Amino acid sequence: MSAASVTVLPRRIPPTILVVEGDVRIRYRVSDELRAWGFKVLEAGSAPEALTVLDAVQVDLLFLALDLPGTGGGWDVVHHIRERPTKMIVTSRETGPSDSPGPFVRKPYQAGEVAALAARSLNWPPPTQA
Questions:
Q1: pLDDT (tens digit, 9 = 90+) per residue, 58-67?
Q2: Rounded Cα–Cα distance for residues 27 and 4 (Å)
Q3: Cβ-Cβ contacts under 8 Å for 93 (sequence gap 6 or more)
Q4: What is the pTM (predicted TM-score) of this model?
Q5: What is the tally of structural domains in the chain?
Q6: More confident position, 29 or 73
Q7: HSE, side-chain direction, 13 A CA sphere, residue 118
Q8: N or C: which end of the chain has fewer CB atoms below 10 A?
Q9: 47 φ, ψ to 5°?
């Protein structure tokens, strides 16, 4: 069988995404949109909360705001999981860093844009229209 005839099928088990965002309104909006796409979503509002979740649960994708409140902000989380094979989408109000650990989405953004990017990153189909 040649490589050209191989078909990659979408996952059947919903991927787990950790949404790390300090602004609760943004975090809820993104989390709700990701749930509508069929993802299992966990939430954290700070770097310490995110590190606690990451140490306890395996996630398939991390959606991380680099501009979290606190000393190191989102970069603390990035440094903590550098050795793990975790896919990541990062966001900030600032311009994307040259050493971004994953695709960058600049704030403000549409929650649907984040969900579509997550779906592509995880080979997950878009939601069916009713």
A1: 999 999 999 9
A2: 40
A3: 67, 106, 107
A4: 0.87
A5: 1
A6: 29
A7: 33
A8: C
A9: -65, -45
